[in-house]
Every structure is written in C-alpha cells, then in structure tokens.
TrEMBL record, chain A:
The chain crosses the membrane at residues 34-56, 77-100, 112-131, 213-231. This is Putative membrane protein. Gene3D superfamilies: MetI-like (1.10.3720.10). Pfam families: BPD_transp_1 (PF00528). SUPFAM superfamilies: MetI-like. PANTHER family: GLUTAMINE TRANSPORT SYSTEM PERMEASE PROTEIN GLNP (PTHR30614:SF20), MEMBRANE COMPONENT OF AMINO ACID ABC TRANSPORTER (PTHR30614). GO terms for cellular component: ATP-binding cassette (ABC) transporter complex. GO terms for biological process: amino acid transport. It is a multi-pass membrane protein. Signal peptide: none annotated. It is found in: Cell membrane. The keyword Manganese does not apply. InterPro entries: AA_ABC_transptr_permease_3TM, ArtM/GltK/GlnP/TcyL/YhdX-like, MetI-like, MetI-like_sf.
UniProtKB/TrEMBL annotation, chain B:
The keyword S-adenosyl-L-methionine does not apply. Belongs to the ABC transporter superfamily. The lineage of its organism: Bacteria, Bacillati, Bacillota, Clostridia, Lachnospirales. It comes from Herbinix hemicellulosilytica. This is Glutamine transport ATP-binding protein GlnQ. GO terms for cellular component: plasma membrane. Coiled coil: none annotated. It is found in: Cell membrane. The keyword Membrane applies.
C-alpha cells in the first residue's frame, strides 16, 4: 500500500518537475540570466578593485613626509573597507546599502544596480586580500630586476608582477566566481529578479516547492560547472605551450635530402 | 681619465650592523673592475648601493659628476644607465626570452617595438641566445638564463654593467659559457663592475681588482699586483684559502 503510494508520489513529482519546466522556462531562464550577469560583472569589478587595492597596499613607504602620511591614511581607509565587507554577511549589507541609501541620502537605487554594486564591493574586499597574498608570494628578485632596468612601482606591477599574480590567483578567483553565482540568491531580499527570486515566484504560482527548486538547483549546478571548466581552460591558455621552438640559425640550415624532397613535393 | 662612478665615504647599516665602512673608490670609463672578498665582506651590498637597490646610510655616489643621492636626481633614469645582472638571474617569468629583452626598452626607454626587437636580437646574438627567443625562463638551463639576463641588461644600452656574482648559482659545467660571454664584453670596452669568486676570470680580464674585507676596501690594484704580490696579510690569507683548494 505504502509502496504504491510512494510510487504515486514519485510519478507526481516527475510530472510536476517537467510541467514546471515547460510552463515556466522563460522565468527560469531570465532568472539565470540575471544571476549570471550580476555574478560576472560583480566578479570582474571585484577583481579590478582587488588588483587596485593590492597595488596601493604594496607601495613602498616614501621618504617624503607628505606622501607618507597620505599613503598611511589611504591604507587605513582600505583596511577598514576590507574588514567591514569581509566581516559582515552580504545579505545584511544588501539591506543596509539598499534601504540605507534611500533613507539617508534619498537615493532610490535601481535594484539591478544595487545588486551589482553589492556583489562587486563584497568580492573586492575578498579579492584585495587574495591579490595581496599573490603579490607577496612573487619572488623579491622579480621586483629588483624590474627596478634595476628603471621601472617605477606602477610599471613593475603592470608589466612584471601583476601578470604573474593574475595567473597565480586565477583558481582563487574562480572560487569567488562560483561563490558569487550562488550568493546572488541573497539579493532576493531586495527583490532583485535573479534565479532564487524567480523560483520563489514560480512556487507561488504552482503551490509546490520541491520541483521548482529542484530545477533551480540543477540550473545553479550547470552554471557553476561551466564557469569552473572555462577558468581551467583560461589557465591553460595563459600558461602557453609546454614546449618552445628553437629558431634555427644560418649555420644550421643544412639541406637534407628528405627536406628537398618535401619541398619538391609541395 | 674620466671617472664614470665616484663613491665617497659610503656607509651602510643594516640595523645595528655596519656592512660598509667609509668606502671610497672610482670606476673609470671602459674599465673592468672586479670586487673580490669573502662572503659577508660587503661586496654585493656595495654593488647594490651603486644602483640604489640598497639605500646607502651615509656618503655620496657621483655618476658623471652628479650626486645620485640628492633628492633632485631621477632614480629611474639613472638605473637605465646601470645594467644589473643578478646571482639568481631574476628573468621576468611572465615574458619569454625576447620579451625579457624588450619590455624595459619599450616601457622605460619608450622605444618602438621594431627598434626594441632589433636591439634585443643584436645582444641576444652576442650572448648566443638568439635561437631561443620563444622560450620561457622556466624552460632554460641556469647558464642560458644568465646569458639572457646579460642580454636583457645590455639591451638597455647602459653606461656601466654591474654583475653580482653572476656564476655563483650555476652548475660547474655552465660557469664557462657565462664567463666567456663576460670576457667578450670586457674586451669590447664595456665598463664593468663585477663581484665574483672566479679568480681566474678576475686575473684575466680585470683592469683593477678590489679586495674587500669586513666592510672596508682592504686593498686595490691591478690584477697582477693583487694576485702575484698582495701587500696586505688578509689579502694573502684570502687568496690562499680560495686558490689553495
């Protein structure tokens, strides 16, 4: 009896699962699109914020008193930024920033903009530390060699250090990207129409919870798996070929019979 | 003869350790000067002070008569005139061989890419690495890396080349190829300041040998004077230790 009932439930579940997909796929798709958009822009902007902060925080202290004081103040502000955004939940930040900007500054933010903004500065706070770690881990000799040929701090960073740092922190950035895809779901508290929000709306229409969220679950998984694969591919591309070609000099250009035959065959 | 570099009363402290004490010496244009001495005698620190990778604690350094320690001096521009070769090569890991030799020319000297490539190829030929322009530093042997590092420094067409123990991190069989390149450079009339443990090299190419001991210049003179007829007891002891075994 129970077995038949269970069996019935299972059939019901699959029926609803496919019905939800067929009836509501445009909503899922739009939700997934918004989720991807916010997490891509958020990760890219956060990455940029992290790089800039990382470079500023590794500027050597100047002998000039004024420059020294300015740098110290900037560093203090950056430290506060990193600690505050790392130390509070994003869901709370979303509430504080979205409603706070309306109450305190009378700015009615576009929800989508607010979403991108919150994810970006949140990612930036984490990336700043990741970048700093990446810069510290680069051999001191790389900095010295760059300085020795006359590069200043910015040039050293742009042309020597950061390209190496970016390669080294790609796995950590991929982590942030995956976290962002999942954590944009908290933006539903300020009604950003991302995948979680859309799925919630669908549950309101069909009065079932399991099936719509099962679909959402699968969509999230597809997005995160795709992103990790793409980043792995990017890492390989940056590393370049494993072998290099020796460019033969003139003294090595001895014509062999098989080469001549090949040439004649062309 | 013109002094291209003049060092006056140079001192350097690391915390409470005095590494260099009242160093005075000159390098003339076209001269090859080898600095020898035991580990910890301050010879590398002296070299690093000359291109300001270490900031001197006291004294003055003149480059073509201008004090490079004054605030008004352009540090970056000065460093392009001082080619530096490191013990650990320090090739840029994110660039291939050609990139290592062109990035400084393009970004610091503002040369056009074609000009930079042409100059780089010229010096890569000098060190015999022109066939390896596509290789990344991690794909090269120690001797090859050091030769590329020399080409990188030469590509900036500096006034003076500084070598900081360029063969100390190499396997014995690779020391020769690097020393041969340096001998060719010495003969071409380049001004060179070489910190080295290779006494045979110093004896062969140095116009002047400077022996350092415990942060001071203990003795200086021609290679023949220092190696065949050292005046100071500590120079004699050092040479006996080095050449004796």
């Amino acid at each position: 009896m129970i077995l038949i009932e269970r069996f019935g439930v299972t059939i019901m579940t699959w029926k609803w699962f496919f019905k939800v997909i067929v009836d509501y796929w445009p909503m899922f798709l739009r939700g997934a699109g918004v989720t991807l958009l916010i997490s891509i822009i958020g990760t890219v902007l956060g990455f940029a914020i992290g790089l800039i902060i990382g470079v500023i925080r590794t500027i050597p202290l100047s002998d000039n008193m004024v420059k020294r004081v300015i740098l110290k103040i900037v560093n203090a502000i950056l430290t506060v930024y990193v600690e505050v955004f790392r130390g509070t939940p994003m869901i709370v930040q979303a509430m504080v920033i979205y409603y706070g900007s309306l109450m305190l500054f009378n700015i009615d933010m576009d929800r989508m903009f607010a979403g991108v903004f919150i994810v970006s500065i949140n990612t930036g706070a984490y990336m700043a530390e990741i970048v700093r770690g990446g810069i510290i881990s680069i051999d001191k000799g790389q900095f010295e060699a760059a300085h020795a040929i006359g590069m200043n701090h910015i040039q050293t960073m742009l042309y020597v250090v950061l390209p190496q740092v970016i390669r080294n922190i790609l796995p950590a950035t991929g982590n942030e990207f995956v976290i962002n895809i999942k954590d944009t779901s908290v933006l539903n508290v300020i009604s950003v129409t991302e995948l979680f929000f859309q799925t919630s709306s669908i549950t309101g229409n069909v009065f079932r919870f399991f099936e719509p969220f099962l679909v959402a679950c699968i969509i999230y998984l597809i997005m995160t798996l795709t992103v990790t694969r793409l980043l792995r591919w990017l890492e390989k591309k940056i590393d370049g070929p494993e072998h290099f070609n020796v460019i033969p000099g003139n003294q090595m250009q001895v014509a062999r019979p098989e080469d001549l035959a090949k040439k004649a065959g062309q | 003869m013109d002094n291209i570099i003049e060092v006056r009363h140079l001192s350097k402290w690391f915390g409470s350790n005095e590494i260099l004490k009242d160093i005075n010496f000159n390098v003339k244009k076209g001269e090859v000067v080898c600095i020898i001495g035991a580990s910890g005698s301050g010879k590398s620190t002296l070299l690093r002070c000359i291109n300001l990778l270490e900031k001197p604690s006291g004294g003055e350094i003149f480059y073509r008569g201008k004090n490079i320690l004054s605030d008004k001096h352009d540090l970056q521009e000065y460093r392009t005139k001082m080619g530096m070769v490191f013990q650990q090569f320090n090739l840029f890991n994110n660039h291939n061989v050609l990139g290592n030799c062109t990035v400084g020319q393009i970004k610091v000297l503002g040369r056009k890419k074609e000009e930079a490539v042409e100059t780089a190829m010229k010096y890569l030929k000098v060190v015999g690495m022109d066939q390896y322009i596509n290789a990344k530093p991690s794909q090269l042997s120690g001797g090859q890396k050091q030769r590329v590092a020399i080409a990188r420094a030469l590509s900036m067409e500096p006034d003076v080349m500084l070598f900081d123990e360029p063969t100390s991190a190499l396997d014995p069989e690779m020391v020769g190829e690097v020393l041969n390149v340096m001998k060719d450079l010495a003969k071409s009339g380049l001004t060179m300041l070489v910190v080295t443990h290779e006494m045979g090299f110093a004896a062969e190419v140095a116009d002047r040998v400077v022996f350092m001991d415990k942060g001071v210049i203990a003795e200086e003179g021609t290679a023949r004077e220092i190696f065949n007829n050292p005046k100071q007891e500590r120079t004699r002891e050092f040479l006996k230790r080095i050449i004796g075994n």
